[in-house]
Amino acid sequence: MSQDVENSAPEHGSIELVDDGQLLVFTGEIDKDVVRHFRLMVRPADWPSRVDAREVTFMSSAGLELMVHLARKQKRAGAELEVVEPPTSLRLLLNQTGLNRVFRSVPAPAPVTPA
């Protein structure tokens, strides 16, 4: 019996590919279930070089491992993973684990105002 991947998406967090595949948006609790769902839905060849982590409330070791894999993919391509404004709690975790050295933290883009 196979379970539909879309219907098995975790409700407590998500990782979504947006902006025509140019950005990953991490939201809520990034744990092993969220990472597993993401890996089933998005092939590593399609992983972008930018992650928006502004809405992360928790990140497990599985989430940290995914961040390492994302950064390694970029490094192999001669680039660097950019993480958009990780919240203080995530920034502290990344600093404590030394993972802050494997990517570059960048500010969020300024909102576009109508002319």
Short synopsis of the structure:
It is built from 3 helices and 5 strands; from the N terminus they run ββαβαβαβ. The chain is an alpha/beta fold and 115 residues long.
Description:
It is a single chain. This protein is an alpha/beta fold and 115 residues long. It has one domain (6-12, 27-106): 2-Layer Sandwich (Transcription Regulator spoIIAA), CATH 3.30.750.24. It contains three helices and five strands; from the N terminus they run E-E-H-E-H-E-H-E. It has helices spanning 32-41, 61-76, 88-97, and strands spanning 13-18, 23-30, 50-59, 81-84, 103-106. A five-stranded mixed β-sheet has the order 1-2-3-4-5. It is globular and about 45 Å long. The N and C termini lie far apart (55 Å).
Structural class of the secondary elements?
alpha/beta
Output the CATH topology: Transcription Regulator spoIIAA
**How many discrete structural domains?**
1
Care to count the β-strands?
5
What distance lies between the first and last C-alpha atoms, to the nearest angstrom?
55 Å
Main sheet: strand order: 1-2-3-4-5
What is the CATH top level name? Alpha Beta
Low-confidence residue ranges: 1-7
Large-scale geometry: globular
Average pLDDT rating: 87
Going by CATH, the homologous superfamily would be STAS domain
Computed CA radius of gyration, to the nearest angstrom: 14 Å
CATH architecture: 2-Layer Sandwich
Percent of residues in helical segments? Answer: 25-40%
What characterizes the major β-sheet? Answer: 5 strands, mixed
Q: How many individual helices? A: 3
